[in-house]
Each structure stands twice: as structure tokens, then as C-alpha cells.
Design a protein that fits this description.
By secondary structure, this protein is α+β, with helices and mostly antiparallel strands. The two termini are about 25 Å apart. The radius of gyration is 19 Å and the shape is elongated.
Length: about 290
């Protein structure tokens, strides 16, 4: 069987993962050391903002999981919604529902939504059993993370105890050389402070090294900078996180932190593995 698919369903969750791994190189804030006296006030304000973002990052890492509504736009102007659980307390995992038609997976399921897991370094898609080929009689389709991120990117995802979680995304904030406090705003009925951080190409050293290899489906998908908007609530936890990089935009709305269900991989006997087919397809994001 020759499976018909597009870069959309391969790249959909990958885009969200990339946004959640925006880590950069050390030394991004050294310019403050040579600032003249007229810039001292601005530097002091930036330090205050960085302290607030650091508290929010630490609190997010502590809680370990969240129920999140995610909207991913790959640059097509047709955002794809993913609603469900993200977990990062014991390795990174997610369990979400996404719109089948928007993800261009309607050929693989009659359901209007597709349950998607990321666990133990691989994606799993809940599909209808196919009549022939590697998905014949299977309830799940598996694609290893290495087929999406390349070998180096997959290693980055699995290394360091988290990889692509919202907590890791926020860790990237400390590398931003341009931060702003945009004031108080009400988001999802909650009082928040809106911050903006821009990571330019120099700030994104580790990110670029991990995900821009020739074997990554994402090597042409990133821009020269990442803009991160974060709305922090009164408990130093994010209410909303929005990230823009290249033509892609990912927005996460956090509904509940902690106490989420455990995410486990589907039984092997119910799973068809398409990792090699995807690796050999030559599909590239564009």
C-alpha cells in the first residue's frame, strides 16, 4: 500500500514541539554590562522583567503537567486546534485531540478528530484500520520523532529531562536579549501581566543546532527569530503562551496545571510503524 499523506500531519505537532524547544546560547545579555548611564534605567527594567519570567519558568517546571488548548498555524492561514494534556514531570509527553480535516488526515479516519500522542519519543495517531499495508488492521499509526526532527533533533527532544514541553519553551525566555512588559490584560477571565521576548538568531544557538540539520523535516521551517508573548497570572503561572517563528505561530492556553492523567503508548500489537516510510518520502516543510 502506498500511503497518501502531506507534510501537514507530519509537521503539525512538530511545529508545536519546535515552538516549545526555543532554547538559545549562553551570554545573550552581556550587552547590559557595557551600557552607559543613560541606559541604566532600561537595563533595570529588563532585569525586573527577566526576574518575573524566571519565576514563571520555575513554577511551570515544578507543576509538571497541564491541560492545554493549542492552536498551530503552519503559515497556511488555517489554524489547527489541539486540545489535551501536556506532561513534562517525567519525560515529555502529550495526549491531544486535533481536527482530522484541518490536519489533512481524513483519509485515515472517519472520525472528525484524531487523538494524537507523543510518548517515549514517538508520535501515535489514532486511525481507522486500513485494508492493506503496514496499517492493515491497526488502530494506531506510529512515527518516531527522528522522522520529524532528524536524529539530532530527536536526541535533543529526549535529552535533558523534557525536550519539548511548555516548561522547556519558557526556559528559552532567559536567552532573549529583547524583553518588554506590555502591562495588565485579562485573558480567559484571568488578570495577567503581558510580557514579550524576542530571541534573534544569535540567541537561538542550541535550537538551531538541534533542529536545522539536513535530516530534519523542519530545516526550512524556522525563521531568523522567535517572538514569545506570555501572559502570567497571579500565581506566577502562564495563562497563555504565544510563539511566532518564520511563518508559523503556536498559541497555548493553559486551563489547569498538575494532576493530569498518565500518558502511555498504545499496545504494540495495535500499532503500525510508518517511521521508515516517512523518512524515505523526502517530504519537506515549505
Amino acid at each position: 500500500m502506498k500511503l497518501t499523506y502531506t507534510a501537514a500531519w507530519v509537521g503539525l505537532t512538530a511545529a508545536a514541539m519546535v515552538a516549545a524547544t526555543a532554547c538559545g546560547s549562553e551570554g545573550a545579555k552581556t550587552a547590559a554590562e557595557t551600557a552607559d548611564q543613560a541606559a541604566d534605567k532600561a537595563v533595570g527594567k529588563a532585569d525586573t522583567i527577566m526576574a518575573a519570567l524566571s519565576r514563571a519558568t520555575d513554577r511551570t517546571e515544578e507543576v509538571g503537567s497541564a491541560e492545554v488548548r493549542t492552536t498551530t498555524d503552519l503559515g497556511t492561514g488555517e489554524p489547527i486546534a489541539m486540545d489535551g494534556t501536556y506532561s513534562w514531570g517525567d519525560g515529555y509527553a502529550l495526549d491531544v485531540e486535533m481536527d482530522a480535516e484541518a490536519a489533512q488526515m481524513q483519509e485515515l479516519t472517519d472520525s472528525p478528530t484524531v487523538r494524537t500522542l507523543f510518548v517515549d519519543g514517538a508520535y501515535y495517531y489514532d486511525i481507522d484500520p486500513q485494508p492493506a499495508g503496514p496499517l492493515a488492521g491497526k488502530e494506531w499509526m506510529k512515527i518516531d520523532g527522528s522522522a520529524v526532527f532528524g536524529e539530532s533533533g530527536a536526541a535533543a527532544m529526549s535529552g535533558g529531562g523534557g525536550g519539548g514541553s511548555p516548561a522547556d519553551s519558557m526556559k528559552g525566555l532567559k536567552y532573549a536579549s529583547d524583553v518588554e512588559d506590555l502591562g495588565k490584560e485579562t485573558v480567559n477571565g484571568k488578570s495577567t501581566t503581558h510580557y514579550r521576548a524576542v530571541l534573534d538568531q544569535e540567541d537561538m544557538g542550541k535550537f538551531k543546532e538541534a533542529f536545522s540539520g539536513a535530516d530534519s523535516l523542519l530545516n526550512s521551517a524556522t525563521g531568523s527569530s522567535i517572538t514569545m508573548d506570555i501572559w502570567v497570572g497571579d500565581k506566577d503561572l502562564p495563562v497563555r503562551l504565544k510563539q511566532e517563528f518564520g511563518a508559523m505561530e503556536v498559541t497555548m492556553d493553559f486551563d489547569k496545571f498538575g494532576a493530569t492523567k498518565e500518558i502511555v503508548a498504545p499496545p504494540a500489537e495495535q500499532t503500525g510503524d510508518l517511521t521508515e516510510e516517512v523518512k524515505n518520502s523526502g517530504v519537506q516543510q515549505g
